[in-house]
Amino acid sequence: MAKQFKAQLMHFLDSYGEMEQRSMFGGIGFFCQEAMFVLLTGKHVYLRGGGVLTDKLIAKGCDKFVHVKKSTSAAVNYYDVTALYLGHDPDLPTMVEQSLQRAIKDKAWKASASSLRLRDLPNLRLTIERMLKKSGVRDVSTFYSMAPQEMFRRVQMTHGKDIDINLLWKLAGAQQGRHWELIEKDERERLLAEV
């Protein structure tokens, strides 16, 4: 019975593009263009929400999926559309399309540079990100628009002159996309001379 239900759901989803399936949240996630937008657990179908679509799903009485894992549970942005699917709700195909487009858009944004945090750059971590933000370097685009020496001076002004010089190498290495220990001695001397 569950296999037949899954086969019917797959047939329904075929019109939205080529699907991939992976184990997710104790069920099966359906992906299109690497973006998950449908979850099947047993005989329940969940659709990914987001923005206005979430409001529509709630208005139609769709409950949020709660993933229970050992001693914890987490509500994720998927809503039970089983009744809509079985009842052939005329709005469901449009909502599935909206869900898919939102999932693809969100996936692309997460993969883009604009979603990067400072701590995601090489050599940087949360403590350095916090120091930079307090010093006026609030995002990745600002980070790349400034010289490492200028950022180091700003951190010194905000946090004191006793900041470890390795921070300067880490900032330069992050901009170059390499580990700070690989920065040559002559480049280190040039950077230090400009601080």
Report what the structure shows.
The structure is a single chain. The chain has about 200 residues and is an alpha+beta fold. The protein folds into two domains: about 1-110, 2-Layer Sandwich (Yope Regulator, Chain: A), CATH 3.30.1460; about 120-195, DNA polymerase, domain 1, CATH 1.10.150.20. The chain is built from nine helices and six strands, in the order αββββαββααααααα. A six-stranded antiparallel β-sheet has the order 1-2-3-4-6-5. Strand 1 and strand 2 (about 25-30) form a beta hairpin.
Question: How is the secondary structure organized here?
Answer:
Layout: H1 2-13, E1 20-24, E2 27-32, E3 35-41, E4 44-48, H2 52-59, E5 64-69, E6 72-80, H3 82-86, H4 92-111, H5 126-134, H6 140-145, H7 148-159, H8 166-176, H9 185-193
Helix pairs in contact: 7-8
* Tally of distinct domains: 2
Please tell me the CATH architecture of the largest domain by its name.
2-Layer Sandwich
Number of strands: 6
Largest sheet: 6 strands, antiparallel
For the terminal residues, how far apart are their CA atoms?
Answer: 71 Å
Net shape = elongated
The helix content, as a percent range, equals: 40-55%
Mind telling me the C-alpha Rg? 24 Å
In a few lines, what is going on in this structure?
By secondary structure, this protein is an alpha+beta fold.
Label this structure with key terms:
single chain, 195 residues, alpha+beta, Yope Regulator, Chain: A, DNA polymerase, domain 1, 6 strands, 47% helix
